[in-house]
UniProtKB/TrEMBL annotation:
Compositional bias of kind Basic and acidic residues: 1-10, 43-55
Record's protein name: (apollo) hypothetical protein
Bias-annotated ranges (Polar residues): 11-42
Lineage, top ranks: Eukaryota, Metazoa, Ecdysozoa, Arthropoda, Hexapoda
Top-level taxon in the UniProt lineage: Eukaryota
Residue ranges of the region described as Disordered: 1-56
Amino acid sequence: MISNSERTENKSLINSSENKTNSESVPTDINAPTTSSGLTTNDKSENEDLREKTPMSKTLSFINENIPSISTPEKNKVKKQILQLNVISASLQTAYEKHDINSKQILKDIVSSEAIEKYNLKTDISKSLGLKGRVRKFKKKERTYKEAKEIRIFFNRDDNTRMTAGKKECVGRGNDKLQKQFLLTSLKKLYTKYVSEGGKVSFSTFRRNRPRNVVRPKLIDRNTVACIKHSNLAFKVAHLKKIGVIGTSDLQELLASSVCSVESYDCMYLNCEKCKDNNPEMNLTDITNNTECTWIQRIRKEFTFEKGIGRKIITTKKYVKESIKGTFSELKEMFLADTTCIPAAFL
C-alpha cells in the first residue's frame, strides 16, 4: 500500500518535471522589457500589427509619426479632420465589398469626377477605397424623350404605316393591347425619309424606338388580290434588276420615274395625257427577246387533305411561291402590264 505522503511527493515531482519541460521548449528573452500585463514589448507590437487598425488608430498613428510636436488645441483640430476622412474611407470600402457590380460602378463613377481628376488623385483614392480594376469613365449617349417621341409620331403617320382592321390583329397581352400597324416600306427607306425631314438620330436609335405595334406585313397578312399582284410585280422587278435591264428594284422609284407626280390622281390612274403612255426606262443592249429568264411568282394552287374522325376530304386553295421559266419578251410583257394596272395605293 502507498501512503499519502508518498503520493504527495510523487505528484510534486511530476509537476516540477512538466514546468521544466515547458521552460525548455519556450525560450524567452531575459533582457526584453516587459509591461504591466506581463507581456514583452515585442509581443505587444506583434499583436498590434496583427490587429486591424480602426479609423481612430490610423488617425493617432498618422499624427504621432508626422506631427508629434503639435500643440494640443491644434492637434485636436487635425485629429477631427483626419478622423472624418478615415471614417468615410472605411465606410465606402466596406460598402464597396458588400454590394453588387452595378453598385460598385456607382462608386467608381464618383472617383472619376472632375475634382478628383483635376488634382490627380484618382489612383490614390482608388487604392485607399480598395477599388478593383481600372476606373474608366464611360460617356453614354442618352436618348432624349423628345427624340423618342418624334420617332413614334413619325411611325404612326398614315403615309408611313397603315392600320389593320381585324379584331384579333393586336400586339400585347391582357388589357395592354395595341392595334397592329403595317409598314408601307422598309425601315431603311423610312429612315432616309426621316433624315430628309430633319431627323438627326442614328439608324440603330431610329429602329430601337419603333413602336411595338408597328410590324412588317407577313405573307398571311398580304393574302389579298392587290397584295399578291404587288408581290409578283416586286419579284419581276428584282429579276430585271439582276439581269441589268433596269437600274433599281424599288417599286416607288421605278413607278415614280414614269409619271409626272406620284401625288396626282390623274397620273397614277393613267388619266394624264403627258405620262399615261410612259414606260420605265430599260437597258436592252445586252439582252434579246429570246433570252431565257427565271423569276418567282405567287400562284394560287389547290390542296386536298383529310380531316376529322370520318376522314372527310377537304379542298383548299393557297398562294405558294414557284419559279417561272420563260423568255425575256414574256417577262417584259407581263412587267409592263403590271405597271399599267397598279393603283396609287401601292406607292
